[in-house]
Write a structure and sequence with these properties.
By secondary structure, this protein is an alpha+beta fold. The chain contains 4 helices and 3 strands.
């Protein structure tokens, strides 16, 4: 019987639950800092996707885009997203 090291293979799956935690953390930061209401937030790679927002909320988030990204960068360091989109991921 030949034993094969699967350590490298399994390390690919280590962060599967991390994306949901990251989305929750980003949502909490935004909710507390910028008073966004109920918004659906998804994070894919380095982009935050907001969807199911009213046009007024989209406009306000667009105007505060630089401040939001700066705040996230302060809190999350290198894990912070660097772009905001209003389309579904």
């Amino acid at each position: 019987m030949v034993l094969i090291r699967v350590e490298n293979f399994l390390s690919k799956f280590k962060g599967l639950g991390a994306n949901e935690e990251r989305e929750n953390k980003i949502y909490e930061i935004l909710k507390n800092s910028f008073l966004i209401g109920k918004a659906k937030v998804a994070v894919r790679k380095k982009t935050i996707y907001f969807y199911d927002l009213s046009p007024a909320a989209k406009s306000e988030l667009f105007l505060k885009k630089e401040v939001i990204l700066k705040k996230l960068k302060e809190v999350m360091k290198s894990a912070a997203p660097n772009e905001i989109s209003f389309r579904k991921p």
